[in-house]
């Protein structure tokens, strides 16, 4: 990874594609789980009529007559993009910015954040201990004016748009930011 966060030309990344013959839902689920634990980027392609019906899995592409090459190429590209970056060890990660920078779907980043032990609040991945610290600081504010709460959020790199998802409500008194209050939702 280059200093600018983009993949270097010399960086070698691979995605494996496996076409399976006869299969069962249990076999595919076990295969996907095993591959996830090993952190091997794999896409499984399976012919529908060689197995039994099951609920679709994220890394399994089913087909009936021809392999859907466009869908396979899209999945490979998605895997390469999602493997091209890490969340790092930051306390707060703006997932929307990261998704736009790496052209990755938010759900992929949210999954990765949850796997790494972050809480996902709005478009942010926040370490759980940090989220509790933010909540405690907000709760400790006597008169919860939006301006005061906003300063706390800003200190952590967060914006007021996550307040609702944290269980707070902004009560406006006109359009003046200084007159708005924050209170816990019931």
Query: What's the SSE pattern?
Result: EHEEHEHHEEHHEE
Portion in strands: 15-25%
Largest sheet: number of strands, sense, barrel closure: 3 strands, parallel
Distance between the termini: 46 Å
Q: What average pLDDT do the residues reach?
A: 82
Number of strands: 8
Tally of separate helices: 6
Fraction of residues in helices? 25-40%
Instruction: Going across the biggest sheet, name each strand in turn.
Output: 1-2-3
Structural class: alpha/beta
- Low-confidence residue ranges: 1-11
> Globular, elongated, flat, extended or rod-shaped: what is the shape?
elongated
| Radius of gyration, taken over Cα atoms and rounded to an integer in Å | 22 Å
């Amino acid at each position: 990874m280059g200093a600018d966060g983009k993949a270097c030309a010399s960086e070698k990344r691979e995605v494996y594609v496996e076409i399976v013959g006869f299969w069962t839902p249990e076999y595919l689920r076990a295969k996907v789980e095993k591959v996830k634990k090993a952190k091997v980027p794999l896409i499984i392609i399976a012919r529908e009529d060689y197995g039994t019906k099951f609920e679709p899995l994220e890394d399994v592409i089913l087909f009936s007559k021809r392999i859907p090459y466009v869908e396979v190429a899209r999945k490979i590209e998605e895997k390469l993009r999602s493997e091209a970056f890490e969340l790092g060890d930051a306390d707060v990660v703006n997932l929307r910015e990261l998704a736009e920078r790496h052209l990755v779907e938010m759900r992929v980043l949210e999954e990765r954040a949850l796997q790494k032990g972050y809480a996902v609040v709005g478009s942010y991945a926040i370490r759980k201990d940090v989220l509790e610290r933010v909540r405690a600081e907000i709760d400790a504010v006597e008169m919860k004016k939006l301006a005061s709460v906003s300063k706390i959020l800003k200190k952590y790199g967060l914006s007021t748009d996550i307040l609702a998802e944290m269980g707070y409500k902004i009560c406006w008194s006109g359009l003046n930011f200084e007159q708005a209050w924050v209170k816990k939702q019931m």
